[in-house]
């Protein structure tokens, strides 16, 4: 008795990714015992061809990015990955090879980040490829970091460098030079900051996916505070600096509002700065203070070194 | 500080659905404590406009069907619903009213089935509307029903009636009469069979979504058994019978292979038939034995009352 084509497709590309609990993807559901005494953390993110990734992006990079943007949500909560479910809506004509690469990319990142596929669904669509991933993780009860916990006086910190993802998209589309491919790599492969121990260190956290300004706005609104950022303190990579001349007047806005960074944005009290530095050093992740939260109506203010307020025409990326 | 349009959309249509653990959809992730001492069950199903539902289908019915096809997966495992995550990829021009109805449909079914929204993601797409739902439930450890557990001699049982969903689609597309709208209703609104207590009663279970013959093939293959069905015993509704003349020669194949039934398919030993009858009676769900599993190479054989084998040209629905 042979398998219908849809199930052969699943067996070929997805069964090798299935971990404990997935029941070999032979059933419609996965069954597993959650780690005792831990809270569960769940998140879902979808990616659409032509919106979140380029039509020519190779399958392995798309698979890894899809998993990593979801891992970044777990990192922002201080959670440990457990597994994921995946639905793919496949347009006509996408070659089977593309999915072989997609599966290989997922396999590599499963190994690196310590999780496996639990289940999912495969359907056809007449439109572009749509990928939806739900991730599960766990965290000590009460230890999950939220957006609403920032306190007046907390420093605003970011991991890594800001702006590389947006400039990487510009580089892939030929708008800025990227001789070493560093920016393109940052666009294709986010680095989820899972290695940091942030419980008891940060009061609030989220990941920067829609642009620093917009995402800081979420932290400010949810915490009921005014956020002030000194633009000159925002960490920028050498590759992003090198692209500055070619990018022209829009460079600073691309860095501050461009999105696709997948760095963490943290609210950290002065008393925890040493602990933050230590966990960052152990994880090999740079952390930089870029401003401070203060009492006041929820807002984001960007300042030059002189104190002058910098207007931003476009605060960030919204899908509608 | 106002919300970007994407977030206002989420606040308007999805925040009212958020339950405990969803953190008001203010964070990217949900956090909750799983029921102690229970195994978790997770499943995901996607639905694409024009593939899984008609472009003119009202939003409330699409929302309810999306949730119910996932609830049906939990029912097949004998699990209790806990919550769900939702990603929506929205084409240009779909009116806001459609999503208001979609949210209202989900709200009604959340109430009926006792679960709530945990999180998700909203994106744009240039193609048709794509909806992906991940459902979480729980079950006593070791009690989850799987496809691979059927034993030689087990009766093959189904809940409810078979074929109404496929004939409902035919009715909505004007191919068969449906004076009372019964068939269309069965296509739009599956009835997940969550009320049955099947642990210790059924050896194996799955839900019938891709057509009785194809799905029975999955049970047969995963259990390593030959399945024999007496076609005259397959329960068919009065509405489906009434559509028989109009549907012509293809009627029987539509019933047996058409899909969208969302009834349960069960392998039940004779010793548990009385218990099955009792839980079915309490739940108000009809159950019917339609055949038997036997030792032999995995296969599905359909027989007439005379014993003659009935060939089926098209064994079921596959998306590729």
Structural class of chain A: alpha+beta
Q: Strand count, sense and closure of the main sheet of chain A?
A: 6 strands, mixed
Low-confidence spans of chain A: pLDDT under 50, at least 5 residues? 315-320
Helix-strand string of chain A: HEEHEHEEEHHEHEHHHEHEE
Question: DSSP helix count of chain A?
Answer: 10
* Helix percentage of chain A: 25-40%
Total number of β-strand segments of chain A?
11
Multimeric organization: homodimer
| Biggest chain pair interface | A-B, 81 and 81 residues
Radius of gyration of chain A (CA) equals 20 Å
In round numbers, the mean pLDDT of chain A is 92
**Distance separating the two termini of chain A:** 47 Å
Order of strands across the biggest sheet of chain A?
A: 7-9-6-10-8-11
The best one-word shape of chain A is globular
How much strand of chain A? 15-25%
Walk me through this protein's architecture.
The structure is a homodimer of 320-residue chains. In chain A, helix 2 runs parallel beside helix 3 and helix 4 (164-172) crosses helix 5 (182-188). Chain A is α+β, with helices and mostly antiparallel strands. Helices cover 32% and strands 24% of the residues of chain A. In chain A, the strands form two sheets. A six-stranded mixed sheet of chain A has the order 7-9-6-10-8-11. The model of chain A is unreliable at 315-320 (pLDDT under 50). In chain A, helix 3 links the parallel strand 3 and strand 4 (116-124).
SSE blueprint and pairings:
The structure is a homodimer of 320-residue chains.
Chain A: H1 5-13, E1 30-32, E2 39-48, H2 59-77, E3 80-90, H3 96-113, E4 116-124, E5 130-139, E6 155-159, H4 164-172, H5 182-188, E7 204-208, H6 212-223, E8 226-230, H7 238-242, H8 244-247, H9 251-257, E9 263-268, H10 273-283, E10 287-294, E11 299-303
């Amino acid at each position: 008795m042979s398998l219908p084509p849809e199930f052969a497709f699943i067996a070929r590309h997805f069964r090798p990714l299935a971990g404990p609990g997935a029941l070999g993807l032979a059933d419609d559901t996965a069954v597993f015992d959650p780690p005792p005494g831990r809270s569960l953390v769940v998140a879902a993110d979808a990616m659409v061809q032509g919106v979140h990734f380029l039509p020519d992006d190779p399958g392995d990079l798309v698979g890894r990015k899809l998993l990593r943007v979801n891992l970044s949500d777990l990192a922002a909560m201080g959670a440990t990955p457990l597994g994921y479910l995946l639905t793919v809506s496949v347009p006509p004509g996408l070659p089977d090879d593309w999915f072989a690469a997609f599966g290989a990319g997922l396999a590599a990142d499963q190994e690196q980040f310590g999780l496996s596929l639990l289940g999912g669904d495969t359907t056809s669509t007449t439109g572009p490829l749509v990928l939806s991933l739900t991730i599960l993780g766990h965290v000590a009860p009460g230890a999950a970091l939220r957006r609403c916990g920032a306190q007046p006086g907390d420093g605003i910190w970011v991991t890594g460098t800001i702006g590389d993802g947006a400039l990487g998209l510009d580089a892939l589309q030929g708008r800025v030079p990227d001789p070493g491919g560093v920016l393109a790599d940052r666009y294709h492969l986010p680095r989820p900051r899972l290695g940091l121990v942030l419980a008891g260190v940060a009061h609030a956290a989220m990941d920067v996916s829609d642009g620093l300004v917009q995402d800081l706005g979420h932290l400010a609104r949810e915490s009921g505070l005014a956020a002030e950022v000194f633009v000159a303190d925002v960490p920028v990579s050498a590759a992003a600096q090198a692209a500055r001349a070619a990018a022209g007047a829009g460079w600073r806005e691309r860095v501050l509002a461009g999105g696709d960074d997948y760095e963490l944005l943290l609210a950290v009290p002065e008393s925890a700065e040493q602990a933050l530095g230590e966990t960052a050093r152990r994880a090999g992740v740079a952390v930089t203070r870029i401003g401070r939260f203060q009492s006041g109506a929820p807002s984001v203010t960007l300042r030059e070194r002189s104190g002058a307020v910098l207007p931003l025409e476009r605060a960030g990326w919204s899908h509608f």
